[in-house]
Amino acid sequence: MTAGRLLRGSGGIAATLLGLLLLTFLIGRVMPLDPVLAVVGPDADRATYEQVRRDMGLDQPLALQFAGYLHALARGDLGRALLTGNPVATDLARVLPATVELATLAILIGTVLGVPLGVLAASHHRRWPDHLARVVGLLGHSTPVFWFGMMGLLVFYAWLGWAGGIGRIGLAFEGTVPNRTGLLLVDALLAGDGAAFQSALRHLLLPACVLGLHSMAYLSRMTRAFMLAQLSQEYVTTARVKGLPEWQVVWGHAFRNIRVQLLTILALAYGGLLEGAVLVETVFGWPGFGSYLTSSLLLGDMNAVMGSVLVVGLLFVALNLGADALYRVFDPRARA
Description:
Elements: H1 2-30, H2 35-40, H3 46-55, H4 62-74, H5 88-123, H6 128-142, H7 145-159, H8 184-191, H9 194-231, H10 234-241, H11 246-254, H12 259-276, H13 278-283, H14 289-299, H15 302-330, H16 332-335
Helix pairs in contact: 1-15, 5-6, 5-9, 5-12, 6-9, 7-9, 8-9, 9-12, 10-11, 12-15, 14-15
């Protein structure tokens, strides 16, 4: 039974990723962008253009092009990126850790601020803490994230000098930290370089706070909705009638019953930060995954785009599997 479930789950994941790649491939072929021109330039003669087009395999039928891509993918070959000239796998290994570092700190900030804010709003329903939390959530969710980024740079970098500005680390420390994990904070700690760690942290905090505030708005709204549903249940009324302190009713009873729902929301929010941080990365000059994917799309570099899409799909699958595993920890019914 367990083997059958594992086989069906693996087949479903493979079919999902295959469909995602096929859809991306077909969309890329109908986009009004010519990757051949990105290689040869607009002034190349017709013979050169046709030769490069044949070398890239774009003269073949779409079915053969896609089959060739899958054959190379089975060997672990994601192709070569037009943007950098490097293997796509090498580029992704270079840019993904920067976004993981940014998104991880952002989701931690969003969770630490957003979840208690949602609980506070629900436990003070229709009173001033609830109204305040809703206004904060509305502003954080509706205000463009790039505007927050520009205002943050203006105030905390240009005026106050607290933030580190654009990029991942100060120019004086570029290339001085040995690249072991790709995560600058971790690499600086492993190297014992306190000055580089401080510089990397100053550069990371502001974009992470911008993304974290955006996540906080979403998480607080969802937490509030989940808590309101639980606080209206009979078991909460019973706990209050028994004379339990309000904090114990809210956190010890109601909040425990929304943890599984929050896991799903957190997994989706984290995945969204990993693949959707492009605006913040652009404003802060952050050399991450979102910037790489956007540049590849604008260039019509389908090898890089499809490799990036595959990584996004794998990330969401991994996050969902991780959330399912945590369900069994927090919910005994899932273990049954």
